[in-house]
Amino acid sequence: MGNLCAILEPQPSKKKQQPSKRLSNAPPSLSQYSSNRWARTRSSRKDKIDDAVIQEQAIAAAALLFKQHQQNGTLPFDRSASLRFPNAALRKNSLPRSSSSRARSLADPLLPPHQLVNQDIKLEDLETNHYVLVHGGGFGAWCWYKTIALLEEGGFKVDAIDLTGSGVHSFDSNNITCLSQYVKPLTDFLDKLPEGEKVILVGHDFGGACISYVMELFPLKISKAVFIAAAMLISGQSTLDIFSQQAGSNDLLRRAQIFLYSNGNNQAPTSIDLDKSLLKDLLFNQSPAKDVALASVSMRPIPFAPVLEKLSLSDLKYGSVRRFYIETPEDNAIPITVQENMINASPPEKVFRLKGADHSPFFSKPQGLHKLLVEISKIP
């Protein structure tokens, strides 16, 4: 406002002649223009020189790091880091760029999110760094491929089990008559585990009932049990009992189920298949299309007899294993209300909620799932 008043205030002049309006808007003098231009040019040149120095120093540091890594193999080197070169000559004999067309910003993290999660982990301080992953009904070990990669990059040991008639296991799921037969690959694995060695057991979907069964058999070999959108039963309960709770409310699940009768239509069903056209809506409503495609050609029928079997779980054995539950709020197969009913009926040590996860968080939220699994491993 003061500047505006100064402009409007009449100014004294030495001459009676009024200054022309044209002169009041005259451009700056040539000397002023040249001076400003020279200042900008000098500033621009200085900035370019500073950038070049910084870039050359960064490249030199990267080259030194790479040389040390080649010599002793003790320093990790991330080849995905994008580099900017001050001139074309430096591109020769240099490390390759990433496939990203965007140059790395100083604000970008130097490590991917899962590596940031792993940074503060001392594996030797954990009770165990060994995960055993158990798939859900119709799935196979293949569904854990993202989780396996993330955990192994963090230095964890991982085994994913194909239960009988699942994944690459050649047995016909229609011929499975009991839960012990279905989980035999898992019980065989734990039985061969060296004495004193423990694992973190992770079960998804119907895999929750499977890990509960082996928790009763091998409580001393299981450090922690993690239920992911899984059937977490109480003694005397079957997985069918859990699904019966939502029989009237989950029309999508009812429509997706296809009962198979290999012993004849007048006998009990032998397995349950799922309508491929409804897989995405039921199991993968938040998952990438490529993972939905993988599942559609990899899923197999779910044996029916194990789903009917009621578990016998004791406080002395099953109850001695520390349990954790990961909820999936966008789940259309086992809705969050059913998950919370199971949690309330048999409260675990801690409950986590994976925001935005569908029934298959290993596809829809692999980074978030990885973070929670690592966090659970660190709980003393």
From TrEMBL:
Residues 132-369 form the AB hydrolase-1 domain. It comes from the Eukaryota. One of its GO terms (biological process) is salicylic acid metabolic process. GO terms for molecular function: methyl indole-3-acetate esterase activity; methyl jasmonate esterase activity; methyl salicylate esterase activity. The lineage of its organism: Eukaryota, Viridiplantae, Streptophyta, Embryophyta, Tracheophyta. Pfam families: Abhydrolase_6. Residues 22-38 have a biased composition (Polar residues). Gene3D superfamilies: alpha/beta hydrolase. Coiled coil: none annotated. It comes from Senna tora. InterPro entries: AB_hydrolase_1 (IPR000073), AB_hydrolase_fold (IPR029058), MES/HNL (IPR045889). This is Putative methylesterase 11, chloroplastic.
